[in-house]
């Protein structure tokens, strides 16, 4: 160590000495540099005194420093009254002086006037040299020089237009740009415009006065000679604005000036004040052009590409360039709030002020009269420019909210209705394409979607909404059912391009939950699927027709149309109910294959989407059919391959230069994204069941260190987990750690865990690994793998919400423990688990506490249980839950549920399922071998949980037998109302277990209550097994295997989140996860492991008493309660793992009743109606 210290000190001293020597050498060389500068000055003086420099070399031979007397002499010689030769020589000498010296001289004011005279001089040398001098001064990084130069040039142009405008052609005469005076004028304005485009990047560095002077000078020039009262008068001459329109037709200078808030405020204030005529002129140009287009549809100019070398602008082209500049000016201004505040705008020739809506409508009306696009430069076609301008505005949510109203929507719908009416003239396809593009931009914003879906009120969907007209046109276009008329010369069906454009507009609406519900009646998914099948058949026939081969264009059009249909059909998977509709079309495999082809190319979902296919992959994986499609398309193999490459491999370039550092975290950041993608795919039980049910895992004797698994999903990683005794664990540390983490996440879903445990006996394997993980002295080795195994064993052996179980730390050094040198949690290698993991939960007192709810129940008779009584009960329950929720437990809670069931049985709208008595023999011996292993393990878990929370008093064996009997009775009862095409309910029935524990393990009472609940609507959502393959479902829903918990409850949870809590919804989307998946997870296992036992019983009571729709409101309340954690874990990119692995802390349903009542008032009509229509 001492040698190392000495070596470091020596190296540091040596480096410091070298640096000091370098500084000394640099200091000594300064004198020689000064000598060189003096020699350079002498040479420049000699060059200047010889007078041999010319215009071309004056800027390249250096600069000369002169005295104030010399500046005064040059200023006198530049006077316009002097001979031309003297002025030329003086200007040449001035060009050799540094601009800073010129500006600092005492003669600057006189030089400034002389330079403006030189710019306006008829002598080419003087005018061009003066212009070059201004360009040179613009290049000096000094704001004072730039300001003076700009104002000098602007004032010169203002004076020139005032004095010499009579020499310019009028607005109704052609402009020849080859004339010398026009060429020089264009060069001056071009120099001015180039500085305008460059200055926004630097003016924030300088005083605000610099900005104000530049803005004031520019707008003063542009507002010069604007005759707003005499539009296009034949005597009006061309203005500076006309010439600027030719040079910068798209008003790039204005766009850049508005980009930063620093200059935007000053510019908008100027337009609101004395320079408002510039804005009035721009608006007037737009309105007059639209008026002329309506009266004479072909009024705007067009020319073919071979005319690009023309040197003369026609009057129509000059006016058109002015219009384009004005359009870009106004559309850019309207993007910003301050610009929109300038409207309504008073225009002299109009009696009423011009609003933004009127401006938009006038632009839209131009589309109604366009036919096929004119040949020539499509970039400057009027309809295209107007369409882009409107689209750029409509993608702004704030603009749509403030400026787009029903009148604008009505104008957009006129061309569409012309196709839906049997009589009348249809709009052209070019018009339809522009309308569709604008509508697509509108639907990309929340405000735009609401406007199309809700019509006037923007609160609830309406039959008069524009969405109905758009969907009707799209549906009839796909089906070929548009009305025809003999008077029409066009065909009945629009082109593929038009149809696809309007289907895309519908897609922007049906890929959100609210839009899908509104458009459900049009069956667009079926129309798109039928059109795709028809196109696929046509394409097949063309490619296999022996009588001829298709043309290249027709084949390409068919392929593009087929992909467009698949793309739009795929986007139904963006919502839970949409995924159900997609699966019913039978095209899910083809859609997923198409998605995989785009996913591998890292393409976005659409031009209006900012993210890729991550959310859609997760949504598709929530169903068995979707998981199967992902597997067939190669998605799962690609995810596994990507994960393993990051885990075990590096690119050749990295390996050749430096080895990748060994990760310090259990899951390296390079692997994290792939790991989370795999978690998303395996999030649902349906995916795990589809991939692992009755699948045996290979048990190889050895595994290669660089072996990449090719089997579906994670067969190989699980094989490593279970057969780790056959390999050297130290070589597979990364794999083992990651697979343990993956297995831990999967085990959070109780049904997934029961399936894996029943097939692969994972717990026993982990216990064996813990037993063999010992030192020679017999002590258990504590490392990351043994700690992860210990955590997994405790987690899978116990059930409990907040405070009901203790999970060990997953870190060697627990930050919550004071002792950092020891792992404080005991390891074990056999069951039962140590007592340190089971907290003591105090039993609830047996004395019944009097409450308003118990008094209400005891004061009513059986005959009084009707709708009015139920409303009174609900009001009492809400009051008690808010004030004394702890009293709603035990006998009071059970009595409330039982009497509520009696009241609901008398209401036909609640008894939606036919009652069928259980078959004889339902109470067979529970020890019969026919009991599935999954159910046996689930019963043991439920009984352990019941004993832990003091819900069961009987011994575990008796309680297990009774629960097994109840499960078997319910299974037999439900099987009488099922069409079993895919087998009985494959999961453990957690709702039956919950009711069994609520009734303290009473078999008969449990069966009786479950039979009563099974008749009611709430059973379809509280009890997932109730509607499994049920005859009460439609054939399509039953065949899909998608439970109503996902397609209905999950769908409405996402609907409310999109409207009420967009931050939470966005956090899910950015994480590649969906709210519907986590709510399905929670509800399927009846919140076991997530809520405390008291909150679980309150959940059941609330749904039975308050209505089935409260299931949606409870889930939304839970997500709102977790909002802070959701947003936080979105930042750390582990939202999925957090929601699955952690109990919900601090949630009390009683505290959220006010919020749930508010949601009921807003959404009950939508949610409950959808729940009844399953």
From TrEMBL:
Domain BROMI C-terminal Rab TBC-like intervals: 746-1174
Subcellular location: Cell projection, Cilium; Cytoplasm
Membrane-spanning intervals of the chain: none
Gene Ontology BP, a term: non-motile cilium assembly
GO annotations of cellular component type: cilium; cytoplasm
Major localization listed first in the record, in broad terms: other
Domain annotation BROMI middle region: ranges: 69-716
UniProt keywords, alphabetically: Cell projection, Cilium, Cytoplasm, Developmental protein
Function comment: Required for high-level Shh responses in the developing neural tube. Together with CDK20, controls the structure of the primary cilium by coordinating assembly of the ciliary membrane and axoneme, allowing GLI2 to be properly activated in response to Shh signaling.
Protein name per UniProt: Protein broad-minded
């Amino acid at each position: 160590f001492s040698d190392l210290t000495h070596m470091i000190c020596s190296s540091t001293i040596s480096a410091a000495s070298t640096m000091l020597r370098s500084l000394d050498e640099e200091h000594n060389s300064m004198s020689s540099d000064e000598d060189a500068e003096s020699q350079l000055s002498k040479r420049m003086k000699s060059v200047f005194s010889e007078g041999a420099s010319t215009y071309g070399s004056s800027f390249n031979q250096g600069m000369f420093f002169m005295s104030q007397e010399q500046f005064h002499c040059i200023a006198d010689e530049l006077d316009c009254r002097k001979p031309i030769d003297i002025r030329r020589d003086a200007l040449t000498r001035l060009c050799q002086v540094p601009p800073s010296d010129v500006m600092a001289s005492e003669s600057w004011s006189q030089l400034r006037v002389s330079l403006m005279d030189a710019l306006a001089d008829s002598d080419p040398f003087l005018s061009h040299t003066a212009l070059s001098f201004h360009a040179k001064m613009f290049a000096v990084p000094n704001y004072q020089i730039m300001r003076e130069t700009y104002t000098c040039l602007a004032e010169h142009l203002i004076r020139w237009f005032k004095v010499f405008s009579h020499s310019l052609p009028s607005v109704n005469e052609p402009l020849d740009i080859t004339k010398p005076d026009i060429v020089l004028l264009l060069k001056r304005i071009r120099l001015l415009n180039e500085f305008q485009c460059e200055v926004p990047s630097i003016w924030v560095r300088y005083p605000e006065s610099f900005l104000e002077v530049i803005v004031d000078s520019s707008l003063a020039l542009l507002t010069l000679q604007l005759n707003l009262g005499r539009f296009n008068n034949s005597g009006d001459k061309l203005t500076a604005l006309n010439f600027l329109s030719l040079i910068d037709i798209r008003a790039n200078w204005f766009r850049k000036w508005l980009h930063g808030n620093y200059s935007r405020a000053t510019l908008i204030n100027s337009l609101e004040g004395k320079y408002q005529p510039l804005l009035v002129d721009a608006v007037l140009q737009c309105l007059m052009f639209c008026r002329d287009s309506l009266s004479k549809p072909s009024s705007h100019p067009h020319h073919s590409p071979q005319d690009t070398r023309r040197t003369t602008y026609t009057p129509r082209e000059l006016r058109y360039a002015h219009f384009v500049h004005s359009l870009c000016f106004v559309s850019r201004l309207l993007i910003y709030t301050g610009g929109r505040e300038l409207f309504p705008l008073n225009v002299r020739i109009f009696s009423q002020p011009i609003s933004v809506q009127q401006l938009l409508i006038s632009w839209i009306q131009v589309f109604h009269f366009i036919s096929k696009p004119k040949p020539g430069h499509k970039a400057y076609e009027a309809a295209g420019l107007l369409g882009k301008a409107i689209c750029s505005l409509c993608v702004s949510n704030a603009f749509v909210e403030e400026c787009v109203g029903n009148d604008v929507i009505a104008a957009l719908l006129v061309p569409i209705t012309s196709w839906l009416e049997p009589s009348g003239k249809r709009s052209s396809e070019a018009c339809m394409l522009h309308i569709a593009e604008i509508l697509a931009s509108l639907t990309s914003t929340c405000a735009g979607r609401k406007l199309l879906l809700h019509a006037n009120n923007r609160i609830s969907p309406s039959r008069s909404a524009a969405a109905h007209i758009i969907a009707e046109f799209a549906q009839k276009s796909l089906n070929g059912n548009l009305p025809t008329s003999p008077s029409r010369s066009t065909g009945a069906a629009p082109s593929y391009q038009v149809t696809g454009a309007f289907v895309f507009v519908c897609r922007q609406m049906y890929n959100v939950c609210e839009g899908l519900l509104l458009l459900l009646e049009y069956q667009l998914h079926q129309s798109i699927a039928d059109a795709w099948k028809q196109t696929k058949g046509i394409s097949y026939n063309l490619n296999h027709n022996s009588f001829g081969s298709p043309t290249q264009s027709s084949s390409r059009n068919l392929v593009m149309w087929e992909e467009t249909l698949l793309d739009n059909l795929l986007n139904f998977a963006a919502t839970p109910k949409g995924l159900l509709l997609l699966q019913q079309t039978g095209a899910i495999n083809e859609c997923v294959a198409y998605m995989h082809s785009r996913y591998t190319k890292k393409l976005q979902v659409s031009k209006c989407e900012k993210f890729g296919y991550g959310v859609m992959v997760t949504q598709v994986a929530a169903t068995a059919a979707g998981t199967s499609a992902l597997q067939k398309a190669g998605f799962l193999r690609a995810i596994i391959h990507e994960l393993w490459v990051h885990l075990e491999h590096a690119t050749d370039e990295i390996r050749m230069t430096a080895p990748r550092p060994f990760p310090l975290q259990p899951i390296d950041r390079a692997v994290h994204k792939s790991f989370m993608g795999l978690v998303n795919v395996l999030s649902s039980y349906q995916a795990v069941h589809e991939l692992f049910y009755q699948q045996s895992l290979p048990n190889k004797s050895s595994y290669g260190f660089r072996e990449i698994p090719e089997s579906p999903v994670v067969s190989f990683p699980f094989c490593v987990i279970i057969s780790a005794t056959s390999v050297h664990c130290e070589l597979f540390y990364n794999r083992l750690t990651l697979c343990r983490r993956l297995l831990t996440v999967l085990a959070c879903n109780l049904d997934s865990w029961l399936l894996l445990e029943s097939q692969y006996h994972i717990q026993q394997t982990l216990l064996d690994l813990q037993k063999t993980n010992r030192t020679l002295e017999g002590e258990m080795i504590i490392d990351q793998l043994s700690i992860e195994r210990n955590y997994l064993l405790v987690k899978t052996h116990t059930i409990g919400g907040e405070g009901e179980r203790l999970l060990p730390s997953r870190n060697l050094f627990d930050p919550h423990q004071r002792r950092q040198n020891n792992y404080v949690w005991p390891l074990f290698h056999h069951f039962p688990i140590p007592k340190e993991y089971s907290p003591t939960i105090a039993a609830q007192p047996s004395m019944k506490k009097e409450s308003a709810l118990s008094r209400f129940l005891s004061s009513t008779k059986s005959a009084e249980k009707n709708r009015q009584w139920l409303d009174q009960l609900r009001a009492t329950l809400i009051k008690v839950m808010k004030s004394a929720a702890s009293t709603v437990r035990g006998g009071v809670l059970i009595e409330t549920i039982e009497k509520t069931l009696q009241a609901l049985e008398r209401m036909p709208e609640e008894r939606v399922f036919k009652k069928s008595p259980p078959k004889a023999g339902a109470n067979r011996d529970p020890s019969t071998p026919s009991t599935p292993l999954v159910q046996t393990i689930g019963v043991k878990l439920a009984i352990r949980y019941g004993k832990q929370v003091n819900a069961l008093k009987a011994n575990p064996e008796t309680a297990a037998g009774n629960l097994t009997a109840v499960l078997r009775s319910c299974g037999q009862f439900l099987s009488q109302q099922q069409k079993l095409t895919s087998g009985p309910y494959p999961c453990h029935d957690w709702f039956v277990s919950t009711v069994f524990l609520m009734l303290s393990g009473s078999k008969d009472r449990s069966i009786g209550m479950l039979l009563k609940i099974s008749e009611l609507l709430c059973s379809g959502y509280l009890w997932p097994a109730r509607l499994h393959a049920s005859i009460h479902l439609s054939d399509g829903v039953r065949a899909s295997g998608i439970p109503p918990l996902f397609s209905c409850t999950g769908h409405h949870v996402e609907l409310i989140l999109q409207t009420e809590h967009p931050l939470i919804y966005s956090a899910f989307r950015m994480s590649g996860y969906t709210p519907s998946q986590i709510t399905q997870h929670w509800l399927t296992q009846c919140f076991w492991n997530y809520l405390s036992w008291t909150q679980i019983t309150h959940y059941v009571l609330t749904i039975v008493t308050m209505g089935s729709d409260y299931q949606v409101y409870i889930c939304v309340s839970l997500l709102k309660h977790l909002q802070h954690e959701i947003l936080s874990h979105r930042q750390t990119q582990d939202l999925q793992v957090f929601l699955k692995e952690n109990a919900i802390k601090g949630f009390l349903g009683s505290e959220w009743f006010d919020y749930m009542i508010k949601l009921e008032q807003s959404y009950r009509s939508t949610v409950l109606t959808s729940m009844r229509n399953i």
